[in-house]
């Protein structure tokens, strides 16, 4: 297989433009997801304040914090890995996903017997924050339609096999 050619300057500019656009779109989707998660968690906390049952506010606050533990590392890892190739980028995102799931499970195990917080409110806030963030991120990415960043190759010689 012949070595990959360097794209022509006009092609390289197009690739850089597409990459910059994709990065802006990704960052926008991630930040909107975090903002939507924070807003929905604030709503859950306010409802918990209105209910006023024992541990409702504590459960909503802890659940909201854990929802941010699920969403914020996605922003950080996506920004840190954006200049890496696709395989390394996927490894960073999957690695961060595994770490945050590990942290989440440990936190939930440690809070398992906490008498001072309501587990249903914790679960509601965690679920609401995580789902709203994921849906917002997905919708933002689908609306943006990222461009594929592929450098064109030279046509093969018909005599080559």
Structural topology:
Elements: H1 9-51, H2 56-81, H3 86-110, H4 119-144
Helix pairs in contact: 1-2, 1-4, 2-3, 2-4
Spell out the key features of this protein.
161 residues; mainly alpha
Describe it.
This protein is mainly α. The protein has one domain. The chain is built from four helices and no strands. The protein has helices spanning 9-51, 56-81, 86-110, 119-144. Keywords: Membrane, Transmembrane, Transmembrane helix. The chain crosses the membrane at residues 29-51, 57-81, 88-109, 121-139.
Strand and helix order? HHHH
Query: What percent of residues are in strands?
Result: under 5%
Q: Quickly give the structural class.
A: mainly alpha
The number of domains? 1
Helicity level:
over 70%
Assembly type of the shown chains?
single chain
Largest sheet: none
* Unreliably modeled segments: none
Give the total of beta strands.
Answer: 0
Keywords: Membrane, Transmembrane, Transmembrane helix
Organism: Brachybacterium rhamnosum
Protein name: ATP synthase protein I
Summarize the model shown:
The chain has 161 residues and is mainly α.
């Amino acid at each position: 297989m012949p070595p990959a050619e360097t794209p022509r300057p006009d092609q390289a500019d197009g690739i850089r433009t597409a990459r910059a656009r994709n990065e802006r779109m990704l960052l926008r989707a991630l930040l909107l997801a975090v903002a939507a998660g924070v807003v929905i968690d604030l709503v859950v906390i306010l409802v918990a304040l209105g209910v006023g049952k024992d541990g409702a506010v504590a459960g909503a606050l802890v659940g909201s914090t854990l929802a941010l533990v699920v969403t914020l590392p996605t922003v950080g890892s996506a920004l840190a890995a954006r200049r890496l190739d696709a395989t390394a980028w996927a490894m960073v995102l999957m690695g961060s996903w595994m770490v945050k799931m590990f942290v989440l499970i440990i936190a939930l195990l440690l809070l398992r017997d906490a008498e001072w917080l309501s587990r249903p409110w914790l679960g509601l806030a965690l679920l609401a924050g995580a789902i709203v963030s994921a849906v917002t991120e997905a919708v933002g990415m689908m609306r943006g339609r990222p461009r594929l960043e592929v450098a064109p190759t030279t046509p093969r010689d018909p005599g080559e096999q």
